[in-house]
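Structure first, sequence second, as always.
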């Protein structure tokens, strides 16, 4: 006699319920991850090396709140960006000496790809990056891989950087959905122990909740004008990175300074009044 197997109604219901819960968990998990990190499919990659990246992303902001548009696209040359970023320094608890935020290779990468990204981005887009560099440990006896991430955009004639992390320990083989190399945020200040040093032509963004020490605003026009005037930055004004040249190019000829001044005016980085005043100052030296 053949046997007929009849499934239990209770077991069938239990199986269906299990499948339903798994699917729901998967969907909610995916939506949670998407809210934490930007999908690469939604970004335009400019540079990618393993987990390092420079990419164009959408502006971030609180739901229902209009984010002021950026002044993109904007033309900033590589050296201009590289020199400006080379002035950024931090101090870390337990270490009395200040440290440059970026290494020479990081400056080379950012100069090139931030220039490209800001020239391609729309007013509703930022340029985000995460780079890994070899930085000295607190006691300076060895170097370890650490990553720095930030969101970059140009607004009100100035370059804005919102840092997510600076010199954070870089760990490979972790789930980036849970531990993303994420840039900074306009809405949520990053929690950090490092302190960005105040420098000439740099300010911290002032939000409704107070000063943002993770959000630095760089006045590139002022930096360029300082260079055009042939002013030499002091060590505290323009910290050099190992293997780098200082920010200032040193004393320039009158002709070179007038050419730079004309370029600043043509790029609308200085006003007509500033142009005329600085031109007179330069000509007085003839």
């Amino acid at each position: 006699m053949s046997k007929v197997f009849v499934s239990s109604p209770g077991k069938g219901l239990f199986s269906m319920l299990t499948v339903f819960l798994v699917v729901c968990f998967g969907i909610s998990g995916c939506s949670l991850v998407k809210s934490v990190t930007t999908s690469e499919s939604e970004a335009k990659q400019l540079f990618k090396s393993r987990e390092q990246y420079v990419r164009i992303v959408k502006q971030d902001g609180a739901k229902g709140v209009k984010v002021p548009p950026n002044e993109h696209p904007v033309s900033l040359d590589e050296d201009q960006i590289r020199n400006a970023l080379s002035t950024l320094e931090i101090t870390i608890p337990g270490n009395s000496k200040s440290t440059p935020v970026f290494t020479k290779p990081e400056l080379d990468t950012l100069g090139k790809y931030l220039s490209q990204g800001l020239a391609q981005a729309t007013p509703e887009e930022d340029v985000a990056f995460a780079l890994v560099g070899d930085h000295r440990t607190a006691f300076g006896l060895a170097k370890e891989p650490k990553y720095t991430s930030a969101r970059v955009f140009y607004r009100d004639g100035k370059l804005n950087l919102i840092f997510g992390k600076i010199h954070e320990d870089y760990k490979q083989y972790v789930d980036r959905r849970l531990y993303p190399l994420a840039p900074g945020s306009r809405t949520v200040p990053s929690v950090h122990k490092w302190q960005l040093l105040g420098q000439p032509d740099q300010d911290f963004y002032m939000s409704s909740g107070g000063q943002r020490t993770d959000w630095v605003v760089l006045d590139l026009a002022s930096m360029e004008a300082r260079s055009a005037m042939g002013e030499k930055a002091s060590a505290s004004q323009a910290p050099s990175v190992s293997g780098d040249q200082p920010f200032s190019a040193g004393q320039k000829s009158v002709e070179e300074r007038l050419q730079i001044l004309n370029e600043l005016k043509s790029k609308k980085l200085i006003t007509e009044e500033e142009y005329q005043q600085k031109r007179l100052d330069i000509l007085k030296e003839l």
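Margin note: The longest helix spans residues 9-36.
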